[in-house]
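Lecture 7 notes: from sequence to structure.

We start with a single chain of 393 residues. Read the sequence below before looking at the structure.
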Amino acid sequence: MQRELRAGAAVVVKRLLFSILFLSAIVKSQDLPVDEIQATINGYFDNFGVNILYPAVSINKNIGEKTNFNARYMVDVISAASIKSWFKVDGVTSATKGIHGGGDDSPDEIRHEFTAGLTHLFGDISLSLNGIYSTEHDYTSKTLAGSISIPFAKKNTILNFGVVRSWDIVAPQTRFWEKEKNVLSLSADLTQVLSTRLVMQGTLYYSKNDGFLSDAYQVVPTLFRASVLYHEPIHPGTRERKAAGLRGSYLLNDVSSIQLGYRYYTDSWDINSHTINILYQRYLTGDITGSFGIRHYTQSKSFFFKEKYLVPEPLMTVDGKLNEGTTNEFEFKIAFKGESLIDVPVLNNFAGNNSELSFKLNFFWRKTATPDWHSRRLSLFAYITSIGYRFKF
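Now the structure, written as tokens:
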């Protein structure tokens, strides 16, 4: 299974955006989450032949005045033309046939992800710990994530520290080997309420990746005596990532807000990127909220990316995400509180004082300087859909 396909789709889907109630949410950030159940059905579809469907269900339940328990289950099913293709790898690494009998030609790949965690209040300080386990036939991942949130100045200033540690096993069915990938990520956020209308947040991020950092299902072609030979990609065994960002939310009036953000990223593979995003949200009625967002991203290429490799080299890749390129993303979302659905046929089944139904559509457009290694297209177009339902109990 091409882990990078899911990772790329996740980047698109999991953008962190402020809500229209961002100001009040910051003030209440040291309270425990409310008791609720959430269910979502998400889909990802692009012109590279990748289709992903990933429903999820989660629950938050307070188990006392100071402790909250959360759990989440997600399953995703992926179908991709590239993971159904088989290439005879004739390089210096492992063999040309998979340990399960050749190419990955199964119609779909299925991944299961389980998350469970606790949040506890120590006075005004909030401490969270979560465990995540993800499994599929050729990849497993175990993750521990912890964070601590400390308020100051009557909760107008909030300092948050986070640490994430992952242990992954890569076992592609088109290779003989199994390899490890380990990730350690650190983050620090400072959120400041500057006025009754304006909140700002600064973020620092650091991550170190070790182990197998390429995509085992991609192949690098070289030309030998008028014949094309395919090789496994070879990436550096370590990658350090650093990022810094600033974002803010401004309440325009009683019914609308605007959020602006900027993020700079750099890593040890010489990739530098800039991300700018803007989001406008508005109460359309007392019970209906709508939003529209734009995100622009641009990056340089890694030091070892080449359009063509004439002979095998110590480092080789065909991963377009390591080439220079630009990305634009557009987001549309509308959310209905339960009361607004009472008179709507079919949807009135979801109505209730403590419920919310939301619909979200993202359009994602990425253009790289060279064609994709498999589809041979310069531009990736993707649609991401989401239907979500929340019920507070």
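The chain is about 5% helix and 55% strand. Keep this in mind for problem set 3.
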